[in-house]
Amino acid sequence: MILNSAAPTREVAESAIPVPMRFTLLCLAALTIMSGATIAPSLPALEAHFAQHEDIALLSRLILSLPALMIALFAPIAGFISDRYGRRKLLLLAVTVYALAGISALLQESLVGLLASRILLGIAVAGTMTSVTALVGDYFSPIQRQTYMSQQGAFISLGGVVFLLTGGLLADLHWRAPFAIYAVALLLIPAVLRFLPEPKRNSIEPLPNNVTNGNPDWPAFALLLGAALLNSLIFFLIPTQLPFLLKEIGADTPSLAGIAIAASNLMGALASLVFYPLARNYLGKSGVFVLGFTVMACGMGLIAEADSFNAIIMATAIYGCGMGTLIPHIFATGLESATPNIRGRISGALAASVFIGQFISPFISQPWIERFGLASGFSAASTTLLLLASLALLLHWLKPKPSAKMFLQ
């Protein structure tokens, strides 16, 4: 593939990737977790403020998860636009809308207005996430991409720590205050203009080993999308339900919720940098799925049994180790299947699967929790993760056909 003179070629060494380009991509990727993590500690106070609304328990969770629906709906469209009209134009528009929609919630007096601002934010995240993921595929070689994805996973997790802690401290002042953090996105527009050139894509780039006639193995890719969906569905229990579990055990300060969720992100950063490369090298692709789902199951099970803030911290940290190992693996594996002409659409499909899971999470978890309790919800999540680990192990034993080994071995 040929890029313009400001961008790296596929053949350059890892060290030749410009640091400003890499750092800009990492910061843009962190906007994804910022969209939800920033306001998670505010949910109990937000629910109390709008207590007069019917079904506010569910609606307050939708404040966090509604952007996920928009991402799921618009990421495939964003992928098509990215492939058809270019990555950078879409990225610049998406980042601008992201900032404006995010901070507009500061001015909303009604729950409807607040939900509308979250819809716009979700559309913006769809464009941002899809174009950034596609650019990673364009700029980096497969080996460079694996290294970058571990760095991105760590950066997103560390960003989650910063945004959660900051959001928690601001939520102690007022539940609206964390929405101001979204203005940070405006600072990235000059960096996009300066450091992220539009790649020139052509048809001479060699096809990945698992790609035939320019198309990946779609059944295997569908399995990957299913894993991404279920993983995000379960993950979203932490930002949407953990603040209420903490309140139930007496730790009801918003900043404590931020700290508890941040513990998961902090360990996720360590796992992305250290555990993921080791797991991929020694366990293989399917082994990373087995390990990631198993460790997350342990974390969720410990959350269900926790009766103190310290126990919650330990449990979320363990969960974060599994999450930080699995998330970069999902995206690196998906990009390995994509040729330049469909890279945007592959990125959009991955983003859609992740955020469909996040959106439907409250609709599945809230009725269960209202009937059986918060602890039971986390326990059920633990059981589901163990089933996913067992399925990954079974698929490995079944020795799938060579094209599917891209995803499973």
Main structural class = mainly alpha
Overall number of strands: 0
Helix content: over 70%
CATH architecture: Up-down Bundle
List the helices and strands and how they pair.
Elements (H helix, E strand, L loop, with lengths): L18 H19 L5 H7 L6 H30 L1 H18 L6 H29 L2 H32 L15 H7 L22 H18 L1 H12 L5 H52 L3 H27 L7 H30 L1 H24 L7 H4 L1
Helix pairs in contact: 1-5, 1-6, 2-3, 3-4, 3-5, 3-12, 4-5, 5-12, 6-10, 6-11, 8-11, 8-12, 9-10, 9-13, 10-11, 10-13, 11-12, 12-13
Verbal overview:
The structure is a single chain. The protein has 409 residues and is an all-alpha fold. It has one domain (16-408): Growth Hormone, Chain: A. Helix content is 76%, strand content 0%. The protein has helices spanning 19-37, 43-49, 56-85, 87-104, 111-139, 142-173, 189-195, 218-235, 237-248, 254-305, 309-335, 343-372, 374-397, 405-408. It is globular, with a radius of gyration of 20 Å. The two termini are 27 Å apart. It is a multi-pass membrane protein.
Record keyword descriptors for this entry.
409 residues; mainly alpha; Growth Hormone, Chain: A; 14 helices; 76% helix; globular; disordered N terminus
Outline of the structure:
The chain has 409 residues and is mostly helical. 76% of the residues lie in helices and 0% in strands. It has one domain (16-408): Growth Hormone, Chain: A, CATH 1.20.1250.20.
